[in-house]
Write a structure and sequence with these properties.
Chains A, B: Belongs to the ribonuclease III family. The structure is a homodimer. The first copy, chain A, has 13 helices and three strands. By secondary structure, chain A is mostly helical.
Chain lengths: 254, 254
């Protein structure tokens, strides 16, 4: 233990520096620059960002891993995207807004954005683990980064960061809106091509706080393969179709 | 339509007043006072709060209903509670924090808090619908109220409001922590009393981004009744036990 302490003493002391001084520490200079470019502002609490970039597989054991920050960032990102959509679509229902939000913050979408932002290069993880390379840990890094910005700079600066560096450059709302309509079409296309019959069937209608909830199932060749719930039948069948697409592994096909 | 407009002309004009002037409008004076007591500050944009209090069953059709604000408030509340727990428990894992958060923001808990805050009296809804009276629409009002405070006063004031008026008076974290441990005990108690055998069985072990996910099932008299997923077996079996309790309707018993 004393050995470990003395070995890391320099780095422990370095952690106490205010963010802007990191540009003078040789070992950290490059990361400082990369962070500056990524964030668009100078990091205040530098070690927060180091934690945000550290996957649990990282070999640098003196760093905490980013899972707690990921939890925090996930909640903050949900609020910021929620607020953004609320203002962007003043005449849309809460069902529409909820669906759009889940399209934006879904794992795959966030992972793609993270890679485009260059977080694959900056994430500290076990690079010999080829499974991790193709998994979605970079989306988690992005969430952790949002958590770090929030702790470092507060909500309003985080909102600006998310708008300027995530939403505006990477989120194509028109495309996401049209995605909604295409799950059923895509599944019908697959069914036609493969000589299957496809039907959507109303399975259940419940009351919840005075609102009706519909459960619609996707039925392929007479067999129920999955179902979706929503406040109207159209959305419920879209959700069922989306699930079927995931289940059948059609996500990447046309 | 012109009749409707002239009928509501007075109220339409009233909507344009700054919040503090509402104390001089006889019809609104009581609501203004109630809101002041509830929020702990003078409402800025009064009509936002009127919308937040309006359930879709409300007969006052010229008011929007609170569902969009509920969507927004739900996201903001998630972020604020997420932040609160992150700071409160610096040494707990993200799994623990996520679980605690979902215990706090679950529908039933929010509804109980809303009723204690007096939102049953303030919510504008169809009071002849006896189903609504016992349903959980007041928790939705509380979320919508958080959304209204956020739009009216911004994130930091909303955080103060949530801390002072929701978390401190109504959320007993110690009790919620102990709830976690009691699902399995409760279910074992029920099984003993009713001469049933209860076992928890590991059903599946998957890898997700390098973390193991365990699926544990609750098995009563040899029959699998439900299952839970988590990053460790203990949490997974607790989740399974909780689901079983809901399923068997034991929630209200000792």
């Amino acid at each position: 233990m004393p050995l470990l302490f003395s070995k890391n003493l320099f780095l422990d002391c370095v952690k106490l520096l205010p963010g802007f001084l990191y540009r003078f520490v040789t070992r950290k200079r490059q990361l400082y620059k990369d962070l500056y470019n990524l964030l668009g502002f100078a990091p205040g609490n530098f070690s927060l960002y180091e934690v945000a970039l550290s996957h649990r597989s990282s070999k640098e054991k003196f760093l905490e891993s980013n899972e707690r920050l990921e939890y925090l960032g996930d909640a903050i990102l949900g609020a910021i995207i929620g607020d953004y959509l609320f203002r962007k679509y003043p005449y849309k229902t809460e069902g529409y807004l909820t669906e759009m939000r889940s399209k934006i913050v879904n794992r795959q979408q966030l992972n793609e954005i993270a890679i485009k932002m260059g977080l694959r290069k900056l994430t500290i993880y076990d690079k010999y683990n080829s499974f991790l390379k193709i998994s979605q840990i970079f989306g988690n890094t992005l969430e952790a980064l949002v958590g770090a910005v929030y702790l470092d700079k507060g909500y309003n600066r985080t909102k600006q960061f998310v708008y300027k560096r995530i939403i505006i450059p990477y989120i194509d709302l028109e495309m996401l809106e049209s995605v909604e309509m295409n799950h059923k079409n895509k599944l019908y296309g697959w069914a036609n091509k493969n000589g299957k019959t496809l039907e959507f069937e109303l399975l259940e209608e419940q009351m919840d706080n005075g609102r009706r909830i519909f459960t619609v199932g996707a039925v392929v060749d007479g067999e129920l393969i999955c179902s979706g719930k929503a406040f109207n039948k159209k959305d419920a069948s879209q959700i069922a179709a989306q699930q079927a697409i995931d289940l059948l592994g059609l996500g990447e096909d046309k």
